[in-house]
Design brief:
alpha/beta
């Protein structure tokens, strides 16, 4: 069995970026010249996935427009002889098969609600990838591909994670591994107090799940801060099924707040052949002032 589908959660309001996100989805904020969500789609596609389900909120039509054709723009680029730009614009529309779903106010707040929105598009027993719309990973092997490689060897739910410092554990879901194991998950503790975390393995927005997840998502039974958490569903399933921790190799970059968004922008800019050297020079000159 292959993993063919990915669900991308893009239904947040991006309140930390207001007023920029008043009419623009946070996932459409650019990292240089490419919106955040395109990096996620390309990671999924580079991992062998072709069916992308994007769960958005009201007013997020820009996401669908980005991956759709723009005849007027393409004609203008063609007439102007801008072949490389035209090829890139057309390439985006052919990346994957896209389905867009809207998360309405009937769903509770929480990072698991987009799953409920997409549940009818997942078949019984079908594995799929779940991705948060603000977590990126710079790596030689796409982060999603790394999870799939583990899943192929041992079919199970797979949770992407990386180590964080003890002072950061209260920001993330933290894994508790079964005694004597370096991979088998016993539970996930959402944002534990510093000093009380079961480990320093932080979960970020990459999961391989199947339809059984929906048995553990009850919109009337919420968790911490009255939210619906993926962590709670994974913890409940781990008592009966197998969940594996995948320590992802690469640099985890979150774009969920302005400071980390700027850090991610710098990281991607420095990697660019056309921008890296002059941008690095600019940073050094600016810091030295």
């Amino acid at each position: 069995m292959r993993i063919k589908k990915a669900i991308i959660a893009a239904a947040g309001y991006g309140t930390r970026f207001l007023p920029a996100t008043k009419v623009q989805p946070k996932e459409m904020l650019p990292l240089i010249d490419k919106p955040i969500i395109q990096y996620l789609v390309e990671e999924a596609v580079d991992s062998g996935i072709r069916d992308i389900i994007i769960v958005t909120r009201a007013g997020s039509h820009a996401v669908a427009d980005h991956f759709d054709s723009n005849v007027e723009l393409e004609l203008m680029l063609e007439v102007a002889g801008k072949k490389k730009m035209l090829e890139e614009v057309r390439r985006i529309t052919k990346l994957a098969n896209f389905v867009y779903l809207r998360q309405t106010k009937n769903y509770p707040y929480g990072n698991a609600s987009p799953l409920l929105v997409a549940r009818d598009l997942i078949n019984n027993g079908e594995p799929f990838v779940y991705m948060f719309g603000d977590d990126l990973v710079k790596s030689e092997i796409p982060a999603t591909k790394q999870l799939i490689n583990i899943w192929k060897k041992t079919p199970a739910w797979v949770v992407g994670c990386q180590e964080v410092t003890p002072s950061e554990v209260d920001r993330y879901g933290i894994l508790k591994l079964k005694e004597g194991s370096e991979m088998v998950v016993e539970s996930v503790v959402e944002k534990p107090e510093i000093g009380k975390a079961p480990s320093n393995l932080a979960v970020f927005g990459r999961y391989i799940l199947n339809k059984k997840i929906f048995k553990y998502l009850n919109p009337k039974k919420l968790g911490k801060n009255n939210e619906l958490w993926v962590a709670d569903a994974i913890s409940a399933f781990a008592k009966r099924g197998r969940v594996l921790a995948a320590k992802v190799e690469g640099q985890w970059l979150t774009t969920g707040d302005p400071l980390n968004y700027l850090k991610a922008t710098v990281e991607f800019a420095l990697d660019r052949e056309d921008l890296g050297a002059p941008f690095k020079k600019f940073l050094i000159e600016t810091i030295s002032k």
